[in-house]
Write a structure and sequence with these properties.
Blueprint (H helix, E strand, L loop, with lengths): L7 E10 L5 E11 L14 H15 L3 H13 L4 H11 L2 H8 L8 H12 L1 H13 L4 H9 L3 H12 L6 H24 L14 H13 L6 H13 L8 H19 L1
Antiparallel strand pairs: 1-2
Length: about 270
């Protein structure tokens, strides 16, 4: 934090994976809080109007998760899951990366310990996202807070967190975006599980570039000052360098931590 301008910086690391759970592109987003103040309890609300607004905002992006859900549904059936199991795991997990990784462990006997560690590594970035949202989400009671965070994902975080910084106080936009992403993911899984491999590979239609383009646009909007570039470059270098050194997912966590430290030191000068 800068003592003079009350400006804080956070690093969001977004890793884009292909349908086989291999990281193919990593984004580092510097999040600038120009206000330097946490909202008061009475400022933060969770309304149906906000939920609808968040759903409308992310629907154009959410529809492109359907093909990825189809790919998972097909892969799940080929791995020995039933259609019910494939759809159920999408309902309760809502994590494409973790779900694809689960398929590698879908054998008898099921290695619960190894599976848990892989899922933790792949979703560890949610710790960073949760910390970034804490000044707003923690103002909610425990029940609504848990509900909102259950639907947290990269796209609705990237959409809502900058809005909160600019003064938005309805947490419903975060939940609404998550709900529409979740619904499209489930729909895609059901189509893939029931339709089978005859549906083909979604990547052949170029749909796999939508999410990278979305995150690139979000990050570009954050690059308003030169001092925000150094943390991004350092964090990106760490993520790429450590990709084949650390277990899957941990390079993203390390990159976020290093990028955050660089941002703090750079701004402290």
């Amino acid at each position: 934090m800068d003592d003079h301008s009350n400006t804080t910086y956070q690093i969001l690391t977004c890793v884009v994976v292909d349908h086989q759970e291999r990281p193919c592109l990593t984004y580092e987003m510097v999040i600038q809080d120009e206000y330097g103040q946490s909202p008061s309890d009475k400022d933060v609300v969770l309304t149906l109007a906000g939920i609808r607004r968040g759903g409308r905002r992310l629907f154009p992006i959410a529809v492109f998760t359907v093909p990825f859900g189809i790919a998972f549904g097909i892969a799940a059936i080929e791995s020995g899951m039933s259609s019910f199991q494939a759809v159920s795991i999408s309902v309760v997990t809502f994590s494409g990366a973790a779900q694809f990784a689960t398929l590698d462990f879908w054998t008898e006997p099921l290695a619960f310990g190894s599976l848990a560690m892989v899922v933790l590594a792949l979703n560890a970035r949610h710790i960073i996202m949760g910390a970034a949202l804490a000044p707003w989400v923690n103002r909610l009671p425990l029940g609504p807070r848990a509900l909102v965070l259950s639907y947290l994902s990269d796209p609705n975080f990237a959409d809502s967190q900058p809005s909160f910084q600019k003064g938005e106080r309805d947490i419903g936009i975060l939940l609404g975006g998550g709900l529409v992403l979740w619904a499209c993911w489930i729909a895609g899984t059901a189509i893939g599980a029931l339709g089978g491999a005859g549906l083909g590979d979604p990547a052949t239609f170029g749909i796999d570039v939508v999410m990278p383009c979305f995150f690139a646009a979000v990050i570009a909007g954050q690059l308003r000052q030169m001092e925000m570039i150094a943390p991004i470059l350092v964090a990106s270098a760490v993520a790429v360098t450590m990709l084949d050194v650390l277990p899957t997912g941990w390079n993203v966590v390390l990159a976020a931590l290093v990028g955050g430290m660089v941002g703090t030191l750079y701004h402290a000068k």
